[in-house]
Each structure stands twice: as C-alpha cells, then as structure tokens.
Amino acid sequence: SSGINAEYGGREQWNKITNVYPCRTECSSSLKLLIDNWNVGTASWLRRVCYERSPISPTNMTYLLSATWHGFYPGYYGCFLSMSFFLLTSRKLRRVVRPLFLRSAPVKVFYDVLTTVRSGITTRC
Q1: Is residue 19 annotated as a catalytic residue, yes or no?
Q2: What is the pLDDT of residues 61-90, one digit of tens each?
Q3: What's the distance, Cα to Cα, between the start and end of the chain in Å?
C-alpha cells in the first residue's frame, strides 16, 4: 500500500495507514471523539462489521466484540462494557446539556474547555 488515500482539491492525502491522531486524541472534548481518533483502523472496521449491522444495541455489541477481540479475560469485558456505558451516558447528557451553552461564543468556549478537561481526567484516571 502506498499510503496515498485519495486526492482532495488536487492535494494527495497521505493518511491511508494512519492509526492514531495524537493531537485530536489528547484534546478531544468528548469520549466519542477520543475513540474516533484512537486506533482509527480498528474503529473503522468495528463500525462497518458490527455497529452498522447490529439490529439491537449496536454500541454494546461493538464493545462486546472489541472485548472478545482482545482476549477472553474478565478485565477486558469490564473495561469495554463500562466504556459502552460511559459513551451512551455521555451522548444523552450532551444532548441535554450542550444546548444550554450555545447561547453565546464565550459560554460555548467555556463548555468546550470544560468538556475537554473532563475527557482528559476521565480517561487518565
């Protein structure tokens, strides 16, 4: 594989084999953004193979498959299924809370900084 992904606006994109976006991962303002930018190839594969095809609870099924992929150890199942719970909870919370902070630009910036710090603390503890 050459590494050339596609051309956009006459420019080649050399990101075909990129598997992590460090700055996007470290500065993500939500758990979803963190997951989308970490282990990019596997996340894309899991999305196509499991998430988009699962008739019931696609998020839980995807994390269950990911835990199985990592091995048959109880810690993996606990970790991945708790990540599923955290992701589903944060989605619902974001839908309710975020609109309250979109009234003005300074308040939105405050919300973005707050959620970025929260994501950093949550994933490092």
Answers
A1: no
A2: 999 999 999 998 999 999 999 989 988 998
A3: 38
What letter does residue 10 receive in the DSSP assignment?
A: T
Contact 125, 70 (CB under 8 A): no
Q: What is the maximal distance between C-alpha atoms in the chain? A: 49
Given 15, 37, 39, 60, which residue is catalytic?
Answer: 39
Looking at per-residue confidence, does 1 or 35 come out higher? 35
Of the candidates 15, 19, 60, 70, the residue annotated as catalytic is 70
Cα–Cα distance for residue pair 125/122, rounded to 1 Å: 6
Say whether 5 is catalytic: no
What's the Rg (C-alpha) of the chain? 17
